[in-house]
Write a structure and sequence with these properties.
Helix content: 25-40%
Number of strands: 8
Organism: Lentzea guizhouensis
CATH superfamily: Alpha/Beta hydrolase fold, catalytic domain
Strand order of the largest sheet: 1-2-4-3-5-6-7-8
Strand content: 15-25%
Largest sheet: 8 strands, mixed
InterPro entries: AB_hydrolase_fold, BD-FAE-like_dom, GDXG_lipolytic_enzyme
Shape: globular
Number of helices: 7
CATH class: Alpha Beta
Order of helices and strands: EEEHEHEHEHHEHEH
Protein name: BD-FAE-like domain-containing protein
GO molecular function, one term: hydrolase activity
Number of domains: 1
Structural class: alpha/beta
Low-confidence stretches: none
Keywords: Hydrolase
Mean pLDDT: 96
CATH architecture: 3-Layer(aba) Sandwich
Distance between the termini: 29 Å
Radius of gyration: 15 Å
């Protein structure tokens, strides 16, 4: 693993994991935590470890968050800057919760992103999670920050969500997929919010399968 800075701020860095031999593709892992400073990229390390074992080059990124000079548009700008900072070819963005929001948002705005896997993602700021979204941005910024307001994304998006998610309602993914023509909905029965980023669970397996499919253009 190599730590690489993509800016001068302490939160503008990432961890690059490279497999032995030729990589099968690139993945950008974007951690969640409702955009708050108290959550960091350590949440993405287990996923990076699993994916590098599958032969992917993985860029596990940090970004400025609420309480640490983040907010909108800084948080989104950091994600785009991080994606541009390392050359691991075309990439799939993989993001959990608030990171899922950033994964889909980045797919809409970055030419390097070929698709996104949104794990229990916050996708529509106007529903269910408005109070949390208002900690990131103002209501006037919803149209530029909320993925549901940006459809069509223009890239394939796979939304994986548990039907027992206690933090982000599964309706976030259902509603998004109803409005996005290139979105695929995967509802995992009995899965909760953190199952998505817990290797060994059925939820994580579905996420990993989605990454592989998008990276291979399937």
């Amino acid at each position: 693993m190599q730590r690489i800075a993509y800016g001068d701020h302490p939160s503008q860095f990432g961890e690059l994991f490279v497999p032995e031999g030729t990589a099968e593709g690139g993945v950008v892992v974007i951690h969640g935590g409702f955009w708050h400073q108290r959550y960091g990229l350590e949440l993405g390390r287990p996923l990076a470890g699993e994916l590098v074992r599958r032969g992917f080059a993985v860029w596990n990124i940090e970004y400025r968050r609420v309480g640490g000079d983040g907010g909108w548009p800084q948080t989104g700008q950091d994600v785009l800057a991080a994606i541009e900072a390392v050359d691991i070819g075309p990439v799939v963005t993989l993001g959990h919760s608030a990171g899922g929001h950033l994964a889909v948002w980045a797919a809409r705005h970055s030419e390097r992103v070929v698709g996104a896997v949104a794990q229990a993602a916050v996708l529509d700021f106007s529903k269910h999670v408005t109070r949390r979204a208002l900690e990131l941005c103002t209501e006037e910024q919803f149209a530029e920050a909320s993925p549901a307001a940006l459809v069509p994304i223009g890239k394939p998006v796979v939304c994986v969500h548990g039907d027992r998610d206690e933090d982000v309602p599964v309706e976030q993914s259902i509603g998004f997929c109803e409005g996005e023509p290139q979105a695929e909905l995967v509802v995992v029965e009995g899965a909760g919010h953190m199952d998505m980023i817990t290797p060994g669970t059925a939820a994580w397996q579905r996420c990993e399968e989605a990454v592989v499919r998008l990276a291979r253009g399937c």
